[in-house]
Amino acid sequence: MYSTTQTLSTSRNVLFVHYGDNWIRGSERCLLDLLTHIDKDAFTPVLWCNSELLADEARKLNIDVYVSEFPLLFGETTPKCNFRGYRQLISQGIEIVDNHNIDLLHANSGAPSQWLNVVSRARKLPLVLHLHSRYPLRDRITLGLHHASMAVGVSQPVVDQLLNDGGKEERCQVIPNGIDTDALLAQPVTNLRRKLSLPSDAFIAVSICSLITRKGVDLLIEACKQLREMYLPIHLVVIGEGAERQNLENQIHEAGLEDYVHLIGEQHNVVGLLRGGADMVVSGAREEVFGLTLAEAGLSGLPVVAPNVGGIPSVVSHHETGILVPEEDAHAIAQAMFHLYINQEQRLLLGQNGYKRVMEKFTISSHTAKFEALYNTLLTDPGMPLKWHSHWQMLPPIQASLKFVKNRKATAQPANDLFAKEAL
Fold first, then answer.
1. Measuring CA to CA, which residue among 187, 188, 205, 184 is closest to residue 196?
2. Which residue of 19, 98, 348, 384 could cross-link 378, Cys pair, CB 3.0 to 4.6 Å?
């Protein structure tokens, strides 16, 4: 499906391609913010995606939008070898490129690179691969993550995967996510205590995340249980939805925490809620390559307790804007929360530092400027457009596969290549 809003322009045309579920969460929010703030005098965006919800939001920005199903080769769903669908995606991609005189392709996740590697070479265009998560080896190979003009990770651990495979440093870079600080701070402040009928002495810790195993909400509930056993007036508020809700509700019931752990679902005014009486933000994530919500915590002037995993340390500075704890450790989370409870002065200072850090490093204006600079580099460097005979990096996938087999033999255990389904 296609919406027509074409306008004449002298700017360079960029096709953004997004693969994902039909929701607006981390990578979708990042894309919409980029589409909103990109310099329209310099770049004209076009969106191609598989989400009607994302398409509806993008149409509000008065840009051209295409919506298609995106069958993946060797993906999680059947048929796994849909070569007919793959050829159709390539044909449609070339048609969109030709219709809009596209100058550059931007894949807003790893999956679209599977067919954009071909589309870009068919029309000799630069391809930006924007990675919001880490990928298991199988996906790095089948999606062709090594073959783009430039792979951009939201944090260093994302890029390190490709570099450790043997990828070239000059074709990888980090551009941290940015948040729309003006829009978020404009959200009406909502009194959390009044909204949830909490006592005036409640110490409120908020977690903003999907209710999935990877986000570690079960660890936060266990930490809350330990703190309640110490008679702390702790209340845990979890903003988000997901497949683990029932299991988490069972855990809350078994721990007798129905009055102290509040699963309040998706909310559209998260920063307004954080600024309405929260004392801190806490994460139990088992894997996180950036953490937009942790940046939102800083914007709200709140300290963060979070595991020292993935890209979290790039957002949360230990003992400067929050406290980093060992991964998979509910007791360490509880200890850090207790420390901030009894040290109000430090808690306030960490929150103030968090606000400064966000305004210096994680604004949408900074994020957008870095992508605009990258686009200009790729469009002016004659070595960046992809061609049939160039930019293929065959050695890294081979090296990574050999390393994988060697390590598996050494451990004599099945590979634990986590979070494949989350990454696409």
1. 205
2. 384
- Which amino acid is it at 48? W
Question: Which tokens in the block code for residue 399?
Answer: 């090296």
Contacts 24+ apart (CB under 8 A), 121-127: 121/386, 121/387, 121/388, 122/90, 122/94, 123/94, 123/97, 123/98, 124/385, 124/386, 124/387, 125/97, 125/385, 125/386, 126/150, 126/378, 126/379, 126/384, 126/385, 126/386, 127/386
Helices (H) and strands (E) in the chain, counts: 18, 14
pTM above 0.85, yes or no: yes
- The strand pairing partners of 239, in sequence order, are 208, 265
CA angle 362-66-22, nearest 5°?
Answer: 60
Q: For the chain (length 424 residues), average pLDDT per consecutive 10?
A: 50 97 92 98 98 98 97 86 95 98 98 97 98 94 94 96 93 97 97 96 97 98 98 98 97 98 96 98 96 96 98 97 98 99 98 98 98 98 85 64 64 48 44
Half-sphere exposure of 201 (CA within 13 A, CB side): 3
- For residue 123, give both structure tokens: 């029309």
How many residues comprise the chain? 424
Q: How many CA atoms lie within 13 A of 117 on its CB side?
A: 19
